[in-house]
Amino acid sequence: MTLPLRIAVLASGRGSNLAALIAARDAGTLPVEFTLVASDKASAGALRLAEAAGIPTLALSPRSYPDRRAFDLDLFARIADSGAELLVLAGFMRIVDGAALEPWAGRIVNIHPSLLPKYRGLHTHRRALEAGDAEHGASVHFVTAELDGGPVIAQARISIESGDDEDTLAERLLPLEHRLLPAVIALIAAQRLALGPNGITLDGSPLTRPLNLSGFQLSR
């Protein structure tokens, strides 16, 4: 019997993607054990969700540290102490120092609301609309020191409609994010997907393009 994958989650906001992960675990479709949910904001809704689910929580204020690197190194050391095997960034709104990321190479993923490599950083919905794009989406990628620049694992896509604004586009995309992230974590938990020296592999074969979310399944 395969043991559940031990994961920690970093989030800065309400935690809707965390809620999706917890729901998938509770439904028996995501074999994970949450070791910690941590945030840079003590008021983050994600911490309240974790507390309600009986998951250990941690809130650290960046203002209590002399610089970003000191904060990141302490935060990531505490995550390591939790016993996490995989770290999931689910709405964590900070750029992480490369020195803190280095020990987690290949063991940290992020969900980003754009079809990477388009629109790294903030205001992705607005930028897609201003560019006149026909479609928008979300990406899950392995995290590197380059902002939203790590290898992309999987994406979910939606068409941009004529009446869309930032809010409606974000609202329509969010349910897909809530399916995309658990689906990717499930592949990692099943030891089917990994990042090696030559890139991402799925079932031992190179992944030459991001997986696509179709329904509730990921496909090549």
TrEMBL record:
Protein function: Catalyzes the transfer of a formyl group from 10-formyltetrahydrofolate to 5-phospho-ribosyl-glycinamide (GAR), producing 5-phospho-ribosyl-N-formylglycinamide (FGAR) and tetrahydrofolate.
Family: Belongs to the GART family.
Gene3D superfamilies: Formyl transferase, N-terminal domain
An example Gene Ontology biological process: 'de novo' IMP biosynthetic process
Top-level lineage group: Bacteria
Key word Transferase present: yes
Gene Ontology MF annotations: phosphoribosylglycinamide formyltransferase activity
Cross-referenced CDD domains: FMT_core_GART
Protein name as catalogued: Phosphoribosylglycinamide formyltransferase
Site (Raises pKa of active site His): 148
EC annotation from Swiss-Prot or TrEMBL: 2.1.2.2
Keywords, sorted A to Z: Purine biosynthesis, Transferase
Gene: purN
Active site (record annotation): 112 (proton donor)
One GO term describing the cellular component: cytosol
Domain Formyl transferase N-terminal: residue ranges: 6-185
Protein species of origin: Rhodanobacter glycinis
